[in-house]
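Try it yourself: sequence plus calcium ion, in.
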Amino acid sequence: AATGAQAKPLAGRSAIVTSGPTHEPIDPVRYIANRSSGRQGHAIAEALAQAGAAVTLVSGPTRLADPAGVETVHVETAQQMLDACLTALPADIAVCAAAVADWRVSGKADQKLKKDSGSLPSLALTENPDILATLSKTGSTRPALVVGFAAETEAVLEHAMAKRKRKGCDWILANDVSEGTGTFGGDRNRIHFIDENGHQDWPDSTKVEVATTLTEKIAAHFAGTTT
Ligand code: CTP
Ligand code: CA
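Structure, out:
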């Protein structure tokens, strides 16, 4: 347990954390969303702040209260989330825990879509910007440590390791979000931690425990030690 001088190991460091889902509008009253609760990202923001970091939490719509001691920026769409993250740079640490919608509706309707228009609507989609990949490739303003998650339903380690390389981040916390695991929207998480050296399997934990373990790892990283 942290004591004395070690209690604020991240004092003087700054962090950006993304959390929650994004909402991608279809028309003025409808949107595309996902089941993310924001619990994991919010817990990480709070744990980093408790360790002394200056934290900007960029959150999509959730039912959670803003964490204590954290500057929270509320956004709805992936594009807004990216803009808020870029505005929050520079930072020493970025943790992307948001379940960003992979696609948005291209050419969202300015008026509510109506049933009596004569035909069924079809939604054309376009890919959203990848916030984790963008932050990993910001050149001179790249945070020293960029951490992402990988939500997978099969071949979890394999997919997550490939994701780490593709996105250019330093660490990936992979989790199995298959139906029945209860991870997505739930309280618990089983993490496979992946860095350039390989992977560690963390025990089944609450999301608050995962936040604490990650924060300890980040503090050790900046202290030049390993865990
Ligand atoms: N991520 C992001 N911006 C996106 C999509 C994902 O920042 N537009 C981040 C997530 O916050 C997470 C990581 O990238 O930290 C991996 O997200 P995931 O959905 O698992 O990966 P994708 O690259 O979107 O691939 P896929 O959903 O097809 O598995
Ligand atoms: Ca995705």
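One thing you can check immediately is this: The chain has five helices and 14 strands.
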